Amino acid sequence: MSTRQDSTVADVGTSKAAARIRAAAIEIFAAKGYGATSTRQIAASLDLSPGAVYPHYKTKESLLFAVSLEGHNAALVNLRAADEPTSLPTVRLTSAVTAYVKWHAHHHSQARVVQYELRSLSAEHFKTIAIIRRETTKVFTDIIRAGNETGEFQTIDTDAASLAITALGVDVSRWFPSSTYSDPEVLAERYVELALRMVGVAP
Amino acid sequence: MSTRQDSTVADVGTSKAAARIRAAAIEIFAAKGYGATSTRQIAASLDLSPGAVYPHYKTKESLLFAVSLEGHNAALVNLRAADEPTSLPTVRLTSAVTAYVKWHAHHHSQARVVQYELRSLSAEHFKTIAIIRRETTKVFTDIIRAGNETGEFQTIDTDAASLAITALGVDVSRWFPSSTYSDPEVLAERYVELALRMVGVAP
Questions:
Q1: What ipTM was predicted for this assembly?
Q2: Which residue in chain B is spatially nearest to A187 when comparing CA positions?
Q3: Which residue has the higher pLDDT, A203 or A48?
Q4: Phi-psi region at B115: left, alpha or beta (left = phi > 0; alpha = psi -120 to 50)
Q5: Is A33 in contact with B31 (Cβ distance < 8 A)?
Q6: Which candidate in B144, B171, B178, B186 is best for mutational testing of the A interface (most A CBs within 10 A)?
Q7: Fold of A58-198
Q8: Model pLDDT for residues A95-150, shown as the tens digit of each residue
Q9: Which class is domain B59-198?
């Protein structure tokens, strides 16, 4: 085991066994809620003894933190990969909203745990996640500011537009899929149109 | 006790004692999650014996249903009261978005339980709640259609705009209040601007 307990990578757990435990935790947390789940149940779902989880995650909260850290990092990495800062702001916003909406649709169980169980994290762990969340919002804020500066966008309030665009993406994990929207690609197209409208780009 | 067990009003529980139990349930469900809460804990928070809940709610699920029914009905009644169908669509959308956003900000604990614990309802109870949810979305859809017809709105996709406007309102209960937005009135103003943009009204 790594001795770098201060490192976020070490906290997530890089072994295959730890990854299997996190994947099982996501399924059970998403289905039953974090509070209703025990590490014993997570172990049992993998045919492991309760003690087998302990070397990887000492507490249920540390497992939630690992899942949250991994999920938030994945969403942010995915979003940043979609954003090409040298492109036109309209292209950037299209690409970023598409990536963010599709990530929440494709990973809706993981996203639901990651977005809706934050209150169960320790204060210290919450702070770490809050930093990643601010970085995520900042991707959208930076694109909107760039568009305001070039005159491509006519945003009324940049903070509100960033919040709303992020909120639409997050909220996808609450309900996806529905009878009307079950194709992430189609949903992303509709939300891109609405996001462009929000920053004042005419269709 | 009422014998009209088929009635949704009877299901909610109209007595003062039942209302106190629902209020306590909302606080504990919102803080710990439905799955992690027992009716025993809810009773204890009111200095009641576990048996005192039973005459009002036979199961924890029936208590969640009562809370969900009451919350969804309250949000819908509040939204409908804000909508005056003889007004201009822009006025109607402004008023409806304001009411919906403010309701989710003012009642964020209740809204969180009502919006995020639906998976724990029985199939039959979920169906009842789904009807109220469709009625809620329909208020927005009707306003947007009216605006499209008069030419006041230039909506690209009415279903998507309804979904997004409803989603923004619901999502408020996930995070409200934040360091940037803690005044429901200010948040509602920003979201009205964005909703009008979404349906193609220039500021």
A1: 0.90
A2: B160
A3: A48
A4: alpha
A5: no
A6: B171
A7: Tetracycline Repressor; domain 2 (1.10.357)
A8: 999 999 999 999 999 999 999 999 899 999 999 999 999 999 999 999 999 999 99
A9: mainly alpha
